[in-house]
Amino acid sequence: MRVFNFSAGPAALPEEVLRQAADEMLDWHGSGMSVMEMSHRGPEFMQIHSEALLDLRELMQVPASHQILFLQGGGIGENAIVPLNLFGTKPRADFVITGSWSQKSQQEALKYGAAHIAATGRTQAGFTHSPPNSEWKLSDDPAYVHLCTNETIDGVETFEIPDLGDIPLVADASSHILSRPMDIAKYGVLYGGAQKNIGMAGVTVVIVREDLLDRAMSICPSAFEWKTVAANNSMFNTPPTYAIYIAGLVFKWLKRQGGLTALEARNIEKAQLLYDTIDASSFYVNKVERRARSRMNVPFFLADETRNDDFLAGAKARGLLQLKGHKSVGGMRASIYNAVPLEAVKALVEYMKEFEATQA
Ligand SMILES: *Cc1c(COP(=O)(O)O)cnc(C)c1O
Q1: How far is the CA of 360 from the centre of ligand 1 (A)?
Q2: Cα–Cα distance, 77 to 306 (Å, whole number)
Q3: How remote is the CA of residue 48 from the centroid of ligand 1, in Å?
Q4: Nearest alpha carbon, ligand 1 atom 12
Q5: What is the pTM assigned to this prediction?
Q6: pLDDT tens string 192-221
Q7: Is 103 within any annotated ligand binding site?
Q8: Going by fewer Cβ within 10 Å, which terminus of the chain is more open, N or C?
Q9: CA distance 234 to 224
Q10: Is residue 267 annotated as involved in ligand binding?
Q11: Using one digit for the tens of pLDDT, what is the confidence trace for 259-303?
C-alpha cells in the first residue's frame, strides 16, 4: 500500500510515472534493454534526452535566449559551480539570505571570491520573510545576485522577482521549480536539483542565459563548465541517464495535468487548505509572514512540543509519513510538491484537527 509522503526530498513521485517506469524497466519500447543499460549516445537514449529537454522548455516556456543543461552535483554542487562559472571577470557576488539554503550558497561562494550579504530575512523567530527588493543593499557592480526563491527548510518563498537591469539574477529554485509558471527571462541563471519537484536525485536542471556562458574562472572543472556542457548538449560526460528518463516521464505527466498554470491552481488549493487549518487553530503555528509562505514546504509547530513524537506516531499510523521538521528548525514540515495529491493534504488536515481535539 502506498502512503501519503510529505518528504522534503527525495520526495513523492506521481504514481503513474512510477508504474510506467516499472513497466518499461526491463525492455524500453522494444529495445530489449532497460534505460539504465543504454549507451547515452545511442538513438534510444538520445530520443529520451531530447524529448525531456523539449518538454521542459515547453512547460517552463524557456525563451530562446536561455539554454537548458542537465548537470550533476545537486543544489549544493551549484553553490560552487555558479561562482566558478560567473567569477571569471569579477570574483564578487551579492546574496539575499532568506533561509538556510541561501546562507549555504553564500558561504560556499566565499571560497572563490567576495560574497556580500545584500539583505537577510532572519528575525528573532528565525527566517520568516523575504526582504523586498527595495531593502536589498547591493554592492558596487557584483557579478550576480543570488536568491533562493523557495527555502525548503524555512518555508519561505519569494514571489516578487525584481528586474536588476544588467546584473544577472541567479536563483536556486530546487524546491519549487515547476510548481507554477515563472518568467525565465528575468533570470540569468535558474537551477534546481531534481529530487524535490522534478523527479529522482541525480540530475540538476540549470537554465542559463547564453551571454553568461563566457564568464567562467579558469579553474572551473570542465564537467561543470556550463559553456562546455552546453556545447556538448549536456553530454560532455556521461549524464545521469536514468534520472533524466524519470524527469522526462514527469514532464510528460505535467503536460497531461494541463501544464504549470493548472498545477499552480492545484498547489494554491493544497497550500491554502493547510495554512487555513494552521491559522484557524491555536494549537498549530506557522511563523512565516503571509506574503512569503511557501506553497511547497509548510513548516509548523505544535503549541505543546512535548507532543511532537505523539503527533508523528499518530500520523504514521494513518499513512501520513515524513512530517518531521528539519533538525535545524524542529517542529513539523509538510512538503506538498506537485506529486502530492489534494487527498493527501485533506487527510493531513483531518488528522491535525483530530489530534488537536485530543488536547485540553
Ligand atoms: C535540497 C536543496 C538543496 C540541496 O540539494 P542537493 O541535491 O542535496 O545538493 C539546495 N537548495 C535547495 C533550495 C534545496 O531545497
Answers
A1: 39
A2: 37
A3: 25
A4: 174
A5: 0.98
A6: 999 999 999 999 999 999 999 999 999 999
A7: no
A8: N
A9: 10
A10: no
A11: 999 999 999 999 999 999 999 999 999 999 999 999 999 999 999
The residue whose CA has the least distance to atom 13 of ligand 1 is 174
Task: Please give the Cα distance from 73 to 81 (Å, whole number).
Answer: 9
Protein residues with CB under 6 Å of any ligand 1 atom: 9, 74-77, 101, 148, 152, 172, 174-175, 193, 196
Residue 319 CB neighbour total at 10 angstroms? 14
Chain segment 43-68, per-residue pLDDT in tens: 999 999 999 999 999 999 999 999 99
Name the β-bridge partners of 321.
Answer: 5
- Tell me what percent of the residues of the chain surpass a pLDDT of 90: 98
Q: What distance in angstroms lies between residue 206's CA and the mean position of ligand 1's atoms?
A: 13
Q: Is 197 exposed, middle or buried (0-12, 13-18, 19+ CB in 10 A)?
A: buried
Kindly indicate the confidence band of residue 360, based on its pLDDT and cuts at 50, 70 and 90: low
CB 279 within 8 A of CB 263: no
Domains assigned to the chain = 15-256 (3.40.640.10), 259-358 (3.90.1150.10)
Give the integer Cα–Cα distance in Å for 321 and 334: 9
The total number of residues written for the chain in this structure: 360
pLDDT of 138-190, one tens digit each? 999 999 999 999 999 999 999 999 999 999 999 999 999 999 999 999 999 99
Question: Rounded to whole angstroms, how far apart are CA atoms 250 and 246?
Answer: 6
Three cell numbers written together for 287: 511563523
Cα 94 to Cα 119: distance, rounded to the nearest angstrom: 9
